[in-house]
Each structure stands twice: as structure tokens, then as C-alpha cells.
Amino acid sequence: MQIIKIAPRGFGSNTYVLTADGKRAVVIDPAQNRVESELIKLGLQAEYVLLTHCHFDHVGGVAPLQQAGAKVLCGEAEKPLIGTAADLFDFFGSPRTAYAVDSTFLDGETKTLAGISVTALFTPGHTAGSVCYLIEENKEKYLFTGDTLFAGTIGRTDFPTGDLGELRRSLKKLALLEDMPVYAGHEEETTLETERKTNPFMVE
Fold first, then answer.
1. Domain ranges in the chain?
2. How confident is the model at residue 127 (pLDDT cuts 50, 70, 90)?
3. N or C: which end of the chain has fewer CB within 10 A?
4. CATH architecture of 2-198
């Protein structure tokens, strides 16, 4: 499996493109419209879009991918927040782009998408329905944390539906996992073991 990071231009989240066959792709948090053109350059067709949560800086590129045929998935508890004030489009004065959720994940549910095993872990706190995605291939595991966990810090909890107590409980849940690479919604990659040892929000 190949993991391709598309860094944002200006304000936006990291977008991650996963492909097992060099043709079909799973796209996590397509932040900007240019993600579609980047996929074309890579010769990849987005079959699925996974959202860690619905904040505007993570979903700006969803609509064109869905219009091109990709199915959009998110956590079950996040779906009701899409298209509401909780997505922060209005708060930041960004034009809202419409898209629909085709399917949702339950906590701990695993789906095979474009040949890739994806397990959703319910990790509320940044939003009420935030999830992290655990990807497993050939006994290797990778964690995509959105804005739940960053290198050295965590996401904000002062936006609508945010809750610091919930986020701390979610971090304890992640801390129980084995060590693996962590691909965060902003800034650089890290590892779960590094965060257990050095992140002040995970060190008890």
C-alpha cells in the first residue's frame, strides 16, 4: 500500500491518499478542490472518501470527488453535524460546498475499501463524532487521527460540539493501541509511542 500526503496550500488540513493497486484510491480528508487534480496527476481514481470529521478545512475538496463517483463515509455520530454550524463554514466565512454521506462507520467497524482494510475508532472530543482510521496491511498498521491527535498536542475543543473531557478519554483509548505511525490532520507525522512518551495530553 502507498500513502501519499497532499499538503494544503494556505489554510487546510493534510490530505492522505491511500492506494493498494496504483489505480484505485481511498482519500482521507480531502481539504481542497485541488486534491482532484492531484489525483489525476497520480493516475488515481478516488473510489472512497473518508472524513475524520466535518470541519470546513477538512472537507473542502469532497464535492468534486463525489461528483466524479467517490463514495463518502464518516463516523455515525458525525453525519448529523454535516451542513450545520458545527462544520465551521459560516464561522470562518468560507463558502459551503454541498456533499452527501453515502455510508457511516460504527465504532470499531471494519470495512474493506478499494482493497484496503479500514477500521473506524470513535474518538469524540474535537467534534462529537470525530473518528480515527486504523489501516492494516500485511500486519503493518497506520493511524490517521484527523484533529484528535497531533505531534505534541491535540485539536481544539472550543468549537461547537467540542469537549475536552471527551477528547482526553479518546486519547486514553488511542494510548492502549500498539505503536504505529500516526498521520495527523495538521503538521507532521509522528508515532503513537512518541506521543505516549512526550505529548503532555497523553502523559499521565
1. 2-198
2. very high
3. C
4. 4-Layer Sandwich (3.60)
